[in-house]
Specification:
Length: 349
């Protein structure tokens, strides 16, 4: 009993010793969890009968590894069971994105000739309204069919309040739509790499199983960027379908890198929100702890919780509102903590 009483008496002393170490710097890490890079898994043409392997093969493989993907929805192709399934996927943290109403496209892939009867409002805005009506979900990202779109169509999307980003699309081929995205890139021109079995139009060449897919994820880690992987089906009859062994090797690699804290696997809107929060909601130290500057309109528009990297001689005890924040040691007097810019100052206890 005496020992317990003694220890109890010591506790406030220990707590105040921790309190004594001031924070010496704070910043928002480029990617969540202080990962070296970010990566998005995306499957186009969802609801089209040709890509049955997304549901049959890809999603169970991802699910088993706790990975979330984005699916490009062709609105007109969705049946009642697809809408119900999309609702489930949304609840699990997957992100459906607008891949237009009919996928007729604005420009022919290859020739770049205008597609007869294209109507941007019908293809994009009606697809948006249909998704909202059937699932209650508002798309916030778009991938144009064949990644081709006129400047007018792209400008129309940018004016829609729900759209926070778009996959890079052009009205001419100039080779710059594929690539890596920096931590300050344009959210309406998110570069990608499309899976191509023999690597013909990919940034990479095939090698060991999963090679083309893995190289694009690895590029994010090596260059500190965000890479976006576009695929269609998996082991089905779809356009350039990914073989099962390739996909499994890719998913294993992603899980391994995510578990090691090197790669942040996230859906497009989550990465865009994170990146814009970092850009528009600045952080600084003050005498009580950490203050977010949320005065910018774009801070309020994009804000999501972000990872703060703090330096302090010892582990800080931090609180935001009534919530105690979990502090993770990152070595060399660095500490990581997740905080929400819209939840008020982070106070040192
Ligand atoms: Zn497509």
């Amino acid at each position: 009993m005496r020992t317990i009483a003694l220890l109890a008496g010591l506790l406030p002393v220990l707590a105040s010793a921790a309190q004594a170490a001031p924070l010496t710097s704070v910043s928002i890490t480029p990617w969540r969890g202080d990962a070296r890079g970010a990566h998005t898994i995306a499957h186009d043409d969802y609801c089209s009968p040709g890509v049955s392997g997304i549901e049959k093969n890809a999603l169970p493989i991802l699910e088993a590894r706790g990975l979330k993907a984005a699916v490009g929805v062709i609105g007109k192709e969705c049946k009642p069971a697809d809408w119900a399934r999309l609702k489930e996927l949304i609840a699990k943290g997957y992100e459906p994105f607008n891949h237009t109403l009919s996928h007729s496209g604005e420009l022919e892939a290859g020739t770049l000739a205008a597609v007869k009867g294209w109507d941007a409002k019908r293809e994009i805005l009606d697809a948006h309204a249909l998704m909202l009506e059937k699932t209650g979900y508002r798309f916030s990202f778009i991938g144009y069919p064949f990644d081709l779109a006129s400047p007018e169509t792209r400008a129309m999307v940018k004016q829609q309040p729900d759209y926070l980003g778009a996959r890079a699309a052009k009205h001419l081929y100039d080779g710059s739509m594929a690539g890596l995205n920096t931590d300050e890139g344009d959210p309406y021109f998110v570069k990608w790499d499309v899976y191509w079995t023999d690597g013909k139009w990919s940034l990479y060449k095939p090698g060991a199983a999963g090679s083309i897919l893995i190289q694009h994820a690895e590029a994010a880690i090596n260059s500190g960027s965000w890479t976006f992987r576009t695929m269609h089906g998996v082991a089905d009859g779809s356009w350039e379908a990914v073989p099962l062994a390739e996909y499994t090797a890719y998913a294993d690699y992603l899980k391994q890198q995510a578990d090691a804290g090197k790669l942040w696997i996230a859906t497009p809107t989550e990465v865009i929100r994170y990146r814009e929060t970092r850009r528009y909601c600045s952080v600084k130290l003050d005498s009580k702890g950490i203050q977010f500057d949320t005065s910018a309109t774009d801070c309020k528009r994009y804000a999501i919780p972000v990872t703060l990297a703090i330096t302090a001689a010892s582990a800080p005890v931090l609180q935001q509102g009534s919530k105690k924040l979990a502090v993770k040691a990152a070595g060399d007097k660095r500490w990581l903590v997740e905080a929400d810019p819209l939840a008020g100052p982070v106070l040192v206890q």
